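Supplementary material to the annual report.
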Amino acid sequence: MNAQAQKQKPSITILQFICIISGIQIGVAVLSLPGNLVKAAGTDGWIAIIIGWIIAGVAGTVIVMVMKNGQDETILELISRTLGKWAGKLAALLMACYFVLLTFDGLNRTVLITKTWLLPNTSSFTLMVLMLIPSYAVLNNQIIAVGRYVVVIFLMSLWVPFIYLLPLKNGHLLHLLPVIKEGWGPVFIALKALIYPSLGIIAAFFLYPYLKNKKQAVAGMWVSNSITMGLYLFITVICLLFYSPDEFIQYNEPVISMLSSIEFRFVERIEVLFIAFYIFFFSMVWIPCLYLTVECTSWMLGGKKKTLHLQIICVGLAVITYLLKPTFSASDDLQERLMWIGFGFEYVLPVCLLGYLWIYGKFQPRR
Amino acid sequence: MAEKVNDCIATDLNSVISHLREHFNDTPDLIFREFGIKQTGEQGLLVFMDGLSDKNAINHDILRPLQFEEGSGQAGGKLIMNVGHIMTVETWMRVEQNLLNGFSTLFVDGRTEAYSLDTRGWPQRAIEDPQMESSLKGAHQGFVETGGQNIALIRRYIPNRELKIRKLTVGKRGRTEVSILYLEDVTNKQFINSLEERIRAITVDVIINTGELAEFVEDDPYSIFPQFMTTERPDAAASQILQGRCVVVLDRSPSVIVAPVSFMSFFQSVDDYSTRWSISTFIRLLRMFAFFVAAFLPAFYIAVVSYHFEIIPLKLLFTLGESRGRVPFPPFLEAIIMELTLEMLREAGVRLPAPVGQTVGIVGGIVIGQAVVQAGLISNTMVIIVSFTAIASFILPNYDMVAAVRLVRFMLMVLAAMFGFVGLTVGLMAMVGHLITLKSLGMPYSTPLAPLHIKDWKDTIIRMPLWKMNKRPEGSAPLQSVRQGNTRTKEEQE
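Predicted assembly:
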């Protein structure tokens, strides 16, 4: 009986699906997004989010449409079935690289932020190892654990947006006006800044086969995109209301700096508490991405010994941190590159795949 | 001789005696009583274990009717005795087992069968108020050391034929009876089967207590969190059965195992259902808060004082500085000293007899409360933190969970001393990660939270009014989900 239950394919609920995708998207990106948007489009940056929402939503829909071509198989199996075995292996390798970069980026940012704000004297390596321990605990138990973990973190952080309403009493609506002061040009340029924060929809490629009710997938994609973009819009608008456009550029992480203006009778420097809490939030990037990396590499090498792969990748991440001693500028550099790599993987690749599968379907003799 | 052990019993009384004497040598409490049976005119031999059997029953209900009452007078005829449960046994094996369980065995000269008579009556404790889980309004009957009585106590709450019992035996030497109680039309078969499978797989000499049994069959034996709940309250056990869980009654043990349970079950108590729902909701939330206080408070204090004192408002910082000024130890050491003292006091109080235990309390109170602070060894704030933590941990209704929290607290203190708030976050993250992957009989341990069953929150995080809880918890995957009909809504419509 027990063996039977274990043989059942693990499945995730639509809520877990939504939370995993939103989690990867929001994670560390939310901190730098308002700054990047304002740099590109001034106070009109928030309009770009609405356009970005539609684009990301369409990209997500395309991914689900690609996945509908396969029955219960991940993207890698789908590719190797339609494009050949070696194309599948190559895709797995590339995606593993992409996911490991995302993981490293997430972890690296977390380490850097913790180092700057909380523990300046601790080495990056130590912090990296510290972050990897709980990740290992979650990941040792595969997709179900990842889904549950992310949902719990979402539940635990539901109160955070409300805290951001507090500084609003010092906000000025005037900062936003006039709307579209420099025309639509800068708004479209600002879309570039939205690519990196929207990365994560690709997870649907791997989550779709586990999804309990596949009909909800498209809706789920839109919901998760709406959550992400809604949060971005919320945070960006609040930042814009709070800081004047000139002030804005002085801060690296306006999202954190803004918290210092909140004062409670019983606690000072509230941002210290918040950054400690944000580590939870950041973990929503690296834990699913680490899972996806392991999924890709283990699939590439025959689908066994996932734990061993996880161990090797964790050790690898720690060693790289030890050797590179990352800095903020290097991290920014990585994010810039990830933006274009991610654009290729999450926006261009699905469209190409969909086109290919459409042609493939035409020429494939029906059974 | 060897074949006789497996084979039939002897027909001749003398060889019966010699056989038993040989196998039970150095067993002075095995009593042999030979007598003539008036009912049939045959020779009889009654064998029983002194102390394990009820002498009154033997004297009045077996010996008297057999020796003095008239019967058919034919050899081989029916024997009339005032005993409820009579088994016919034909092998030495069965005779031996029954004797050791307190049955007395009647051999009749010339017959190829013997009779095991239920005269079990070993030393027993009266049913008393449960010690560990006392309750204000709940029943005042606790389980005792006899499995049969414990089952009867549960049956009193669920007089329904759907309440089924699966009986197993565990232990080569002890042969402890283990009964799994469940509702046939409610409880998911998967639990019962996997529980039975796991219990059958145990090969030990003897299992003395439920804790041992739980350790053998738990899902993750390396976890510090209890995955089965033990209770000594029949009413609690019955209500768990009604929610679609199984209860394991272990003979000779005064508590039973409830499985599968979730993390949240450890925050519930029977009193929750007998007080008003708004109040018990408040108490449940209080318990959850207490859990976090008990696990995190000392660690939080260490993190704040040694790493992040900038978050303390200035006025409070002065007070803190004043109290910590004379203390020679770093906060971590200070906290460890106090926590260890507290743990030692607690352990001392548990093992010592009640009158001496009180002295420990007084000594501890003076040591913790006053002397340490006056001597300048420990700061006042630390004393407050430690006592607050202790109080918080006393609020949790389940001893096993409190024990787990104590261990978690020490781990978090170490993490906080090394990494401040980051250590705390990582600790919490690891704890969440561990809890969501833990299972109890294959059911997710963190059930109403992860996986999310919002409907189950009615009776976990809060307690809704009873007439709102019409369904059994989804978390225990019951076969029959409806528990009750609408009580209130009809009334209100009228």
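The CA atoms of residues 37 and 45 of chain A lie 5 Å apart.
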